[in-house]
Specification:
- With about 325 residues, this protein is of the alpha/beta class.
- The protein has one domain: TIM Barrel (Alpha-Beta Barrel).
- The protein is built from eleven helices and eleven strands.
- It has an eight-stranded parallel β-sheet with strand order 1-5-6-7-8-9-10-11. The chain has a three-stranded antiparallel β-sheet with strand order 2-3-4.
- Helix 1 packs antiparallel against helix 3 and helix 4 packs parallel to helix 6.
- The longest helix is centred in the middle third of the chain and has 16 residues.
- The chain is globular and about 55 Å long.
- The chain starts with a strand and ends in an 8-residue tail after the last helix.
Length: about 325
C-alpha cells in the first residue's frame, strides 16, 4: 500500500512569475536585490516564500519515509475568489507548474469561484478524468466558500462532480483578516480555525443530505471542530458528523495532545497525515506520539479509504 502526505504546497516558477506580475493582493515582490520572494496578502503579515525545486521536493517525500505527497494551491491566497479575469491567469500558472510532476508528487485541483459555478464544475470534470490534462486527485476549496448552508448549496455543482468521480474534497483555510499589529502566527490560530469549524458544521450537517457519498478531508483537524460536539448538542445541533466515515481530518501543525483527543471523538480511522510543507517543516516525520501502528493508519490505511477510486461499472 502507498503511504502519503495529503497536504503540501509548491511555489513553482510559473506561479511566482504570475504573482509577481500583480500589484494588488495576492502578489510577490523581490525581498531586496538578489533576494527571495516576499508574499503580500491583505489580512496577513508579509512572509518569505521559497522558489521550490520540484525534484528536491520529490526527494524529500522519500526522506520523510513516504511514497507520495499531494500539493495544493494555498487557498489562503484568495485566488479562487478573485474576479475570474484575475483568477484564471493564476490558476493557469498553478497548473503549468504541475506539468511533468515526478511520480512522488500528486496534486489537488483549484477552480475559480467568482464566476459561473456550472462552468467551473464542467472544467473540473475534465481535470479528473483519466484522459484529462492534469488528473488531479480531488479538489481543494477555501473553507470560507463552504462556511454556511447557502454557500454549500451554491457550490453544489462542484461537489456533485466530485461525488460522480469518487474524488475527495480538501477543505483548506482561506484568506485571513488579521489586525495589522498581529504576530505572524495569528491567522493560523484565529481566522483559519474559525473558518474550518464553520465549514465542518455546514458540510457535516446541512450539506450531508445533498452529498451523501462525498468524501471530505479537512485541513488542520477541522480547527478541532469535532471537539466542540458537547456544546453543539447543548445548543440544539446534531453530532451525527462524529460518526460520518466520509469525513477525514488532516493533522498538520498538531501533535499528540490534539491527535489523542480527536481519535477519541471521531476515531483514529478518520485521521490522515499532512505536513503543510513548506509552511511547516516537521522535525521528525512519523513521530506523532501515537506509535507506529497509528502512523501506518494515518499515512496508509486511512488515506487509501479517502482516495479510493470509483468502482468499475459492472
Amino acid at each position: 500500500m502507498t503511504s502519503v502526505d495529503l497536504h503540501q504546497h509548491l511555489w513553482t516558477e510559473p506561479l511566482l512569475r504570475a504573482l509577481a506580475a500583480r500589484s494588488s493582493s495576492p502578489y510577490v515582490r523581490r525581498d531586496g536585490p538578489g533576494g527571495g520572494w516576499r508574499l503580500v496578502l491583505d489580512g496577513e503579515p508579509d512572509s518569505l516564500v521559497p522558489a521550490d525545486d520540484v525534484a528536491a521536493r520529490a526527494r524529500l517525500v522519500g526522506a520523510d519515509g513516504l511514497d507520495r505527497a499531494f500539493v495544493a494551491l494555498s487557498t489562503a491566497l484568495g485566488i479562487e475568489s478573485l474576479p475570474v479575469d484575475e483568477a484564471q491567469p493564476l490558476l493557469d500558472a498553478y497548473a503549468a507548474g504541475l506539468a511533468d510532476l515526478p511520480l512522488q508528487l500528486g496534486s489537488w485541483a483549484a477552480v475559480a469561484l467568482s464566476g459561473d459555478i456550472e462552468e467551473a464544475a464542467s472544467g473540473l470534470a475534465q481535470t479528473l478524468t483519466p484522459t484529462g490534462v492534469w488528473r488531479h486527485v480531488g479538489l481543494c476549496l477555501p473553507a470560507p466558500a463552504l462556511a454556511s448552508p447557502a454557500a454549500v448549496e451554491r457550490l453544489g455543482p462542484l461537489l456533485d462532480v466530485l461525488e460522480r468521480f469518487a474524488a475527495p474534497l480538501f477543505v483548506h483555510p482561506g484568506p485571513a483578516a488579521s489586525p495589522a499589529d498581529a504576530p505572524a502566527w495569528w491567522p493560523a490560530l484565529t481566522d483559519y480555525v474559525a473558518q474550518l469549524q464553520a465549514a465542518w458544521l455546514a458540510l457535516g450537517t446541512t450539506g450531508r443530505a445533498a452529498h451523501p457519498t462525498l468524501r471530505i478531508v479537512f485541513a488542520a483537524l477541522a480547527g478541532l471542530a469535532p471537539l466542540h460536539h458537547e456544546r453543539l448538542t447543548a445548543r440544539g445541533g446534531s453530532d451525527a458528523a462524529l460518526r460520518d466515515r466520509g469525513l477525514f481530518y488532516e493533522t498538520s501543525s498538531y501533535g499528540p495532545g490534539a491527535l489523542h483527543c480527536m481519535a477519541d471523538v471521531v476515531g483514529l480511522s478518520q485521521l490522515v497525515h499532512g505536513s503543510d510543507r513548506p509552511v511547516v517543516h516537521p522535525d521528525r516525520p512519523g513521530d506523532t506520539g501515537l506509535g507506529p501502528v497509528a502512523w501506518e493508519a494515518l499515512t496508509t490505511a486511512n488515506p487509501a479509504r479517502l482516495l479510493a477510486p470509483a468502482p468499475s461499472p459492472s
